[in-house]
Design brief:
Blueprint: E1 2-4, E2 7-9, H1 16-28, H2 33-46, E3 63-67, H3 70-80, H4 96-111, E4 119-120, E5 127-131
Antiparallel strand pairs: 1-2, 3-5, 4-5
Helix pairs in contact: 1-2, 3-4
């Protein structure tokens, strides 16, 4: 229990898996863990999704079903495949996760959804739900 003057703050223990997930998200976004957690707190309390789309939190229930075309589906599948490589004085290629994230970002712009809100839909592999992007 942490104290702040006369107030006592109860800070619950955080599961190691949650911390690891937060660390991975921070790394993917090029932020420190502290910056990422602060951004999440600001996002949760500001009425914005943190990407410059005011009111997106209140629109969280506004999910829509999207369907990938054959070409789009193949792009996601190809991007998710591991890339064999040998590092010989150079840089490692992007990971399958980084490649897939890049494709999802592009699909979000192309199809009009917030790429990091995509979730699988029970209708099949080519279907997913996501929050619509409204500029």
């Amino acid at each position: 229990m942490a104290t702040n003057g006369k107030q006592q703050l109860r800070i619950p223990a955080i599961d190691t898996a949650v911390v690891n997930k937060l660390k991975m998200q921070a790394i993917e976004q090029g932020k420190s863990l502290q910056e990422h957690v602060i951004a999440l707190l600001v996002k949760a309390t500001s009425g914005s999704d943190g990407r410059g789309h005011p009111g997106a939190i209140s629109e969280r229930a506004m999910r829509r079903v999207f369907q990938l075309s054959d070409e789009q589906y193949n792009r996601v599948i190809e991007a998710s495949k591991p890339v064999p490589y040998i590092v010989a004085g150079g840089m490692e290629p992007a990971s399958p996760q980084e490649n897939a994230n890049h494709v999802w970002r592009a699909l979000g712009e192309e199809m009009g959804f917030l790429w990091d809100t995509a979730k699988p839909d029970s209708r099949g592999e080519r279907y997913f739900t996501a929050e619509e992007f409204k500029p």
